[in-house]
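User: Here's a chain of 77 residues. Predict its fold as tokens.
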Amino acid sequence: MIVITATEFKAKCLELLDRVNRTGEVLKITKRGKIVAELRAPEPDLPAPSGPGFAKGEFSIVGDIMSPIDVEWEAMK
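Assistant: Prediction complete.
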């Protein structure tokens, strides 16, 4: 854990961002002696579920989806 003042953070912002991302350390930023922010590396992205059946049970079809509808749309005129 690194604790620095807001003034130090402002002066070394890009360097500190790279360090946190590289090492995974938590950076605590203080202002007038009190911690006002924490900077940490993001959690790794999880792969999105995909493939056959990944959303099974999430949706249901209600009614007849194959028959034409009786509504005439303005774009069809």
